[in-house]
Specification:
8-stranded mixed sheet, elongated, 2 helices
């Protein structure tokens, strides 16, 4: 697999300036700005095409939400700006502090999200940080660290997709042996993301074959058309 390298900090900063974003050090952190990165989930495994999502709200309204991949937002540059304005009625109704913020009133639309190809990340641990800027130029951050593991292809087409036949998923092991690549994959239900997620993925190791011990003193007795075996 050819891993992609995200655009350099200099290029990203130049892009940010063209889009009118504030550069590092020109804004203040404000705890009145609420931001939550819900997916990828802290400590989980992920692979394939997935979703980056969460929500943010501010007293002056959210201007934008930036994503930083394995970078400190104070010294790095955003890898992308996430789509903002998704409906999250439960957040606005359930958190009194943000219910009157412009992002929740009159419409409950504080969600942000973006599709992301996690196969483009090198295998291993990664940290995603989202920085939400309000309309006054201040910000607040949230981060999650997770483990990404590619299944060998940046995109899996219909002709060579990895087959995972139906099986019961409840923290159980699912083996996917193949000619070129083999994995042991363990799934569990994630309440945070409301889906089954990989809790572990390792190289496939076939279970050892243990030949049964042959019986000793085997005898056969014929009885009215039946054969009785004893050992």
């Amino acid at each position: 697999m050819e891993n992609h390298i995200f655009r350099s900090s200099a290029a990203a900063l130049a892009t940010a300036c063209l889009l009118g974003f504030s550069g590092p050090g020109l804004a203040d952190q404000n705890d009145d700005i609420w931001v939550s990165l819900e997916q990828p989930v802290q400590g989980e495994f992920t692979t394939g095409i997935g979703i980056i999502r969460g929500w943010a709200a501010a007293p002056s309204g959210i201007d934008r939400v930036e994503l930083y991949i394995n970078e400190d937002p104070d010294t790095g540059s955003p890898n992308q700006v996430l789509g903002y304005g998704g409906s999250r009625e439960g957040i606005c109704a359930g958190i009194g502090e943000v219910s009157s913020y412009p992002d929740c009133a009159p419409e409950a639309r504080p969600g942000f999200a973006s599709a992301f190809n996690f196969n483009l990340l090198p295998d291993g641990e990664h940290t995603f940080t989202v920085r939400a800027y309000d309309n006054s130029g201040d910000y607040n951050d949230d981060s999650n660290t997770f483990t990404s593991r590619s299944l060998g292809e940046e995109f899996i087409s219909d002709s060579d997709r990895i087959a995972l036949p139906a099986f019961v998923v409840d923290g159980v092991r699912k083996s996917n042996p193949g000619e070129d690549q083999s994995f042991d994959i363990e799934f569990e239900w994630s309440r945070a993301s409301q889906r089954f997620v990989m809790s572990r993925i390792t190289e496939y190791e076939p279970l050892p074959f243990l030949a049964p011990t042959p019986p000793g003193d085997l005898t056969a007795t014929w009885d009215d058309g039946n054969v009785e075996l004893a050992w």
